[in-house]
Description:
Layout: H1 11-14, H2 20-43, H3 59-84, H4 95-123, H5 130-153, H6 162-179, H7 182-188
Amino acid sequence: MANDAQFSSSEPESRHDGSTVWLLGFVLVGAAVSLALGAYSRGHVPTGRPISTFGFSTMLDMKVWLASAALVLAIVQLGTALRIYGRVGRGPCPPAIAITHRVSGVVAVTLTLPVAFHCMWSLGFGSYNARVLVHSLMGCLFYGVFVTKMLTVKSSRVPGWALPVLGGALFTSLVIIWSTSSLWFFTHGSPSY
């Protein structure tokens, strides 16, 4: 999501000489983050209560609306990334697009933090039905992919295809997380988790 690289229409081509060994190292760090989050969520005894609802009436409302806002910003991320990589639009990428990409990424990930914290601390890792299991697994995966992407973003030692693939994986994991929680809430009412 958030990307601090200097964007230009030629950047993707300049990254193609990287090594997959560095990328593998970054992926292993991200996997360790995912596993650590999963182990904590699974081993922690859920409290069932929020620390803060940030002005929302319930913890569930807070989680649903912050996650939805993060998804909207992730869609902004996708659109700006497509422009940055020359998949939409013509000519050089305006600096405002790169700034929008960075800011929307930072805000999107920041919005997910209280949601994830409350998922882990208040509810724990759920596996009692397929939807909840997928939600729990993707929540852990999201932050592992995020860490991998942030390590990759500044590195010229990884293949050029790595950053767009990781960005796509990050976007996809957030869509799945949102679909198995917020969308469920909007279409079925309060979930039993």
